[in-house]
């Protein structure tokens, strides 16, 4: 099957403003909610006095910890059931009123008394209490193969450095929102979530009610990138409690400032990395990561996990540790683990190449891992070497030495490159397809589309399997009334829905084939069902020109058309015969104006080997979007805590910079085809690949341009000023 | 007060009902007679009161451009505009640009260039792009500069600029 460049399924709704995001649902009588935030970073709530708030015109109700006692204790309800204050800005109450401004005014009028305790506002304050997390994602926190310390002592070259990355926030353009109400004992929850089914399960547990009495909808989602998950639930629960208390629908929308504190962040890392080489080959790696987590839960990115398997190396140890601070809790964010991890590893490889006098690309090809040395398994497929070759050719890497020190106007130009990778996994998924008598197709799966193209992928997989044009396909998703689908994260949705939709359409094809051959008077009557294929809204004999229109065929079937369901199981990590990874090679050209300290990414060539590409148009958008996220991490984004108070400083887009149109380089995206026999449909994830590697590529290009090695992110103006090097 | 106890300052003022005002506006060719709080932003009136939810609230501080609307063809951030200042104004929101059956050329170009992912910034990008087109941008660079008040977190920027450039004939 050839890749198809169908345009985005829901694009017309989005460009005309008709796509309705869940916070825009407006039931009659709806109240607006606002959160009351803790003015301190550590301590406990002594009392919440709403007497004055109740005098604000429009005031309807207030929800506090006392109301949360009706909820069942769990990780998801701890912050709203307990007195403890863990970070500055932690909500201590929710107020609902007739309008948004009344709710905010009432929230400001709530009197909160707190007992203050000394806050830990910097990793260094508690470094002595660092501890190893139970796991990093689905991986062990530490690993060891061979004897890396001995191998380092015997190495011809050791590259040993500390790399640090700063806190980032996700900042989808749509702030979190919920519009919820109760219909007797049933709950209707319209909310921006990357996981409608997990959200339903969290409500079922917290409110101790059957999942069947809860409907969660997220049909249009204005981005997520990892933050529209579990950290949103406590505040959503409070909105639901307010709705129950007031007997009216309630809407809660987070402010942009609250997106810095309430819904997660990419954790800061301090990474100590040592590489040992003999004869240009890696003989030892030690990668130790220390990262921040909150005082109310543990979270660690899988930062050093990819160091275990990217290169061939007999002696590797990795370890992760966490330090608790009174700062907001971290969660996965775009290329979790690989983004900070490859910054360290791929910067260090560049440093090693310089010291060895070997071209950085050549050094990577020389150390290519022909199999997964950590697990001992083969790769399910791995065309990384092809990515290196094709990318270098397209980018003009060979001109590195002639061009690298050249000046273009005020810009000193540098080239850099790095590798990116991300695991290919999938979740359990169900899908339903229904063909009506008029030949139109409905595809249903409860998963949501956070902008990554899930509507299009669902429709396209089913349409292609049945030979139906996309114009006749309706896709329904983002609703727990639909078949169970995966959460949107970890680059796994397409890989998860593909086998489920394929299973459903296979059943439908079998039904149609039987109808086609079962009637002796029909054009294909009497043939074998296996000979039937589906193209251009027709069923055809594979080896002849005989065909029948799908609608004629359907007219002989049941009056309500034909329907089928399919499902697939999640990846069974224990039973894997091969390790599935997507790869990419990122080549970057930057310009530096050393007088202004300005750094510009001028050109990016991303070459990716990520299994079968279903839709090159949308895949290209995903890769470019990921790369732009990586540029933000490399050059712009930095969440700063005031160490005296624990308050996050500059909680707005004027202080927290993200890439804008004017920051855009020229992009060249190449996709290397892979035929992966181990993965269903040969589909790997693509969403994360662009957001790793590029950070090191930029840092390496900066070193190439001006000879300065920057080992922290984001790279700042002061790192590039002439006086600094 | 106990020295280790802090509290948000008590508001001394009485909470009086917000003064309300009457306004008329023409939005997408239709006349709206509105009664609203004197402090209401244009964005909140458009989005919450009139239910024209194609205009988005991304930051409510003029920092992201998601709330862009046109006032007599000129683009403004409606979250920074007091509704009261726009009495008798002629406004255009995304709902007045085109429909799925009759797309504006820039809307059609956005679809062809896949200039959107999650879609939340898209109405603002399109309105800003339409206003920019009337300013006759002469290069891709001018388009990028002229569009830099409209943030996109998914990273659809290259497609957006390509779509505007195509309509501009560049």
The name of the CATH topology of the largest domain in chain B is Ubiquitin-like (UB roll)
Indicate the low-confidence ranges of chain B by residue numbers: 1-11
CATH secondary-structure class of the largest domain in chain A: Alpha Beta
CATH superfamily of the largest domain in chain B: Beta-grasp domain
Tell me the CATH topology of the largest domain in chain A: Aldehyde Oxidoreductase, domain 4
Q: Which CATH-level-2 architecture of the largest domain in chain B? A: Roll
Class from secondary-structure proportions of chain A: alpha+beta
Q: Which protein chains are joined by the largest interface, and how many residues does each one contribute?
A: A-B, 76 and 72 residues
Please state the average pLDDT score of chain A: 96
What is this structure, in a nutshell?
The complex is a heterodimer of chains A (725) and B (170). With 725 residues, chain A is of the alpha+beta class.
Strand-helix topology:
The complex is a heterodimer of chains A (725) and B (170).
Chain A: H1 11-15, E1 31-37, E2 43-49, E3 59-64, H2 65-68, H3 78-81, E4 84-85, E5 91-97, H4 100-108, E6 111-116, E7 143-145, H5 148-153, E8 157-165, E9 177-183, E10 186-191, H6 196-206, E11 214-217, H7 233-246, E12 250-253, E13 269-278, E14 281-293, E15 316-324, H8 338-356, H9 360-366, H10 384-395, H11 400-403, E16 407-408, E17 411-423, E18 429-435, E19 441-444, H12 454-466, E20 473-476, H13 493-518, E21 532-535, E22 538-541, E23 547-549, H14 550-555, E24 562-568, E25 581-593, E26 598-609, H15 616-635, E27 640-641, E28 648-649, E29 666-671, H16 694-706, E30 712-713, H17 717-720
Helix pairs in contact in A: 8-16, 12-13, 15-16
Chain B: E1 5-7, E2 20-27, E3 30-37, H1 42-49, E4 68-71, E5 74-77, E6 90-92, H2 105-112, H3 122-133, H4 140-146, H5 157-168
Parallel strand pairs in B: 2-6
Antiparallel strand pairs in B: 2-3, 4-5, 4-6
Helix pairs in contact in B: 2-5, 3-5
């Amino acid at each position: 099957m050839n890749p198809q460049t169908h345009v985005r399924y829901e694009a017309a709704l989005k460009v005309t403003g008709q796509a309705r995001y869940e916070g825009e649902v407006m039931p009659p009588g709806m109240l607006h909610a606002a959160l009351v935030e803790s003015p301190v970073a550590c301590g406990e709530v002594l009392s919440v006095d709403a007497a004055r708030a109740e005098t604000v015109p429009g005031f309807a109700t207030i929800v506090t910890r006392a109301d949360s006692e009706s909820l069942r204790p769990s990780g998801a309800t701890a912050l709203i059931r307990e007195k403890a204050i863990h970070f500055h800005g932690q909500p201590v109450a929710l107020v609902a009123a007739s309008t948004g401004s009344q709710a905010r005014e009432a929230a400001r009028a709530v009197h909160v008394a707190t007992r203050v305790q000394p806050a830990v506002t910097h990793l260094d304050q508690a470094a002595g209490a660092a501890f190893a997390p139970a796991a990093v994602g689905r991986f062990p926190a530490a690993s060891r193969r061979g004897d890396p310390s001995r191998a380092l002592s015997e190495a011809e070259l050791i590259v040993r450095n500390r790399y640090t990355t700063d806190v980032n926030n996700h900042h989808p353009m749509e702030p979190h929102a919920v519009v919820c109400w109760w219909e007797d004992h049933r709950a209707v929850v319209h909310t921006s979530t990357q996981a409608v089914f997990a959200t339903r399960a969290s409500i079922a547990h917290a409110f101790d009610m059957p999942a069947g009495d809860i409907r969660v909808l997220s049909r249009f989602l204005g981005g997520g990138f990892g933050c529209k998950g579990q950290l949103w639930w406590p505040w959503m629960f409070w909105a639901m409690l307010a709705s129950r208390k007031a007997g009216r629908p309630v809407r809660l929308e987070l402010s942009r400032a609250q997106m810095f504190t309430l819904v997660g962040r990419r954790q800061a890392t301090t990474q100590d990395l040592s590489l040992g080489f003999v004869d240009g080959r890696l003989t030892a790696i030690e990668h130790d990561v220390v990262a921040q987590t909150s005082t109310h839960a543990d979270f660690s990115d899988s930062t050093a996990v990819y160091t275990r398997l990217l290169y061939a190396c007999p002696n590797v140890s990795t370890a992760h540790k966490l330090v608790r601070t009174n700062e907001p809790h971290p969660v996965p964010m775009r290329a979790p683990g690989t983004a900070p991890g490859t910054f360290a590893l791929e910067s260090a490889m560049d440093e090693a190449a310089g010291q060895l006098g070997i071209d950085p690309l050549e050094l990577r090809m020389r150390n290519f891992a022909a199999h997964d040395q950590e697990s001992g398994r083969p790769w399910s497929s791995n065309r990384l070497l092809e990515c290196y070759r094709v990318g270098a050719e397209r980018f003009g890497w060979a001109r590195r030495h002639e061009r690298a020190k050249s000046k273009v106007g005020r810009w000193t130009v540098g080239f850099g490159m790095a590798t990116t990778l991300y695991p290919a996994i999938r979740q359990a998924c169900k899908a339903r397809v229904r063909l009506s008598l008029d030949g139109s197709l409905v595809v249903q799966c409860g998963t949501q589309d956070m902008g990554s193209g899930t509507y299009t992928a669902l429709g396209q997989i089913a349409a292609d399997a049945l030979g139906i044009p996309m114009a006749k396909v309706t896709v329904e998703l983002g609703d727990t009334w639909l078949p169970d689908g995966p959460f949107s994260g970890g680059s796994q949705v397409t890989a998860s829905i593909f086998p489920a939709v394929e299973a459903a359409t296979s059943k439908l094809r079998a039904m149609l084939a039987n109808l086609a051959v079962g009637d002796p008077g029909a054009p294909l009557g009497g043939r074998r069902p296996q000979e039937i294929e589906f193209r251009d809204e027709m069923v055809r004999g594979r080896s002849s020109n005989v065909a029948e229109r799908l609608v004629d065929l359907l007219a002989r079937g049941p009056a309500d058309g034909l329907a089928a369901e399919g499902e697939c199981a999640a990846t069974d990590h224990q039973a894997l015969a091969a390790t599935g990874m997507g790869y990419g090679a990122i080549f970057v050209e930057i310009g530096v104006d050393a007088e202004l300290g300005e750094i510009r990414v001028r050109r990016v060539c991303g070459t990716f080997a990520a299994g079968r590409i279903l839709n090159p148009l949308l895949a290209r958008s995903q890769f470019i979007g990921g790369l732009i996220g990586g540029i933000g991490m490399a050059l712009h984004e930095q969440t700063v805590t005031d160490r005296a108070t624990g308050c996050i400083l500059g909680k707005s887009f004027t202080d927290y910079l993200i890439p804008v149109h004017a920051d855009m380089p020229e992009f060249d995206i190449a996709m290397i085809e892979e035929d992966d026999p181990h993965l269903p449909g040969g589909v790997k994830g693509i969403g994360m690949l662009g957001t790793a590697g590029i950070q090191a590529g930029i840092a390496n290009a900066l070193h190439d341009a001006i000879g300065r090695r920057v080992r922290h992110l984001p790279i700042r103006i002061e790192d590039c000023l002439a006086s600094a090097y | 007060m106990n020295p280790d106890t802090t509290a948000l300052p008590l508001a001394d003022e009485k909470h009086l009902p917000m003064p309300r005002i009457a306004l008329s506006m023409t939005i997408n060719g239709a006349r709206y007679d509105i009664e609203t709080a004197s402090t209401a932003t244009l964005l909140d009136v458009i989005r919450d009161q009139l239910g024209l939810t194609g205009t988005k609230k991304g930051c409510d501080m003029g920092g992201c451009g998601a709330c862009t609307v046109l006032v007599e063809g000129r683009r403004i951030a409606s979250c920074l505009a007091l509704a009261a200042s726009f009495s008798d104004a002629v406004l255009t929101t995304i709902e007045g640009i085109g429909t799925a059956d009759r797309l504006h050329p820039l809307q059609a170009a956005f679809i062809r260039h896949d200039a959107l992912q999650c879609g939340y910034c898209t109405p603002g990008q399109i309105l800003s792009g339409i206003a920019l087109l009337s300013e006759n941008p002469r290069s891709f660079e001018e388009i990028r500069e002229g569009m830099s008040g409209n943030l996109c977190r998914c990273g659809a920027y290259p497609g957006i600029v390509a779509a505007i450039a195509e309509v501009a004939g560049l």
